[in-house]
């Protein structure tokens, strides 16, 4: 322990012209890890100091710090130390290769989190968290995603809003027959939008704006009082959120943007500009 303590605080004993290196204490502070962790990484050969002083103190080079950075990144993503060792010691890999791999892994995690957030929002808008569904209906809507697992998160994010309280109350009162009518109306709206879009009718035209108003009325009737501002935000989400966009794009490529533009045009027509 005394040796570790002395080593952690040991200063830089570089001679003239020696490349910059760092004591184990400095590295622990820089990387926000414990000295014990660095000792363990050294013992298993994961991150070993590039040199030692004559007194036996560990000295970490900039290359060692770069390797440690990669280790901590992969640890954050849940990789085991044995896996990290294999990744870092694989032949033919360099810093750029690791950075590209890390960027890909982060992108995947971000996409997954976005999909989870979108599913929670989907559940809120569709107003079905409290509606009894058959296993087939649940699978068709959510796949292997379970919205109840995120009910607490949704409540934390929106539980303070009147829209959330109103949505929950109406969901609790809906019967199976109500749910059937709700889904049929929603499907009919998509079909009507698709027909208008494929017919070349403009999103700012009377037909498309009329469908947007029907959609707003549908949400107000079944889910919550959907103001023009809320409706405009939903239109934006239909394009920005890949889960919603995929539903509409399955009917016609470009349909999500068409519906959004029709919703915006309808709100503008009603005098509700952003």
What gap, in angstroms, lies between the N and C termini? 65 Å
| Strand segment tally | 3
Please, how many helices? 14
In one word, what is the shape?
elongated
What order do the helices and strands follow?
HEHHEEHHHHHHHHHHH
Instruction: Report mean pLDDT, rounded to a whole number.
Output: 78
Strand content: under 5%
Structure description:
With 274 residues, the chain is mainly α. The chain is 67% helix and 3% strand. It contains 14 helices and 3 strands. The chain has helices at 2-8, 24-31, 35-43, 62-76, 81-88, 95-126, 135-142, 151-158, 162-173, 176-198, 206-222, 228-240, 242-249, 255-269, and strands at 21-23, 51-52, 58-61. A 3-stranded antiparallel β-sheet has the order 1-3-2. A hairpin with a 5-residue loop joins β2 (51-52) and β3 (58-61). The longest helix has 32 residues, at 95-126. The protein is elongated and about 85 Å long. Residues 11-18 and 138-145 have low confidence and may be disordered.
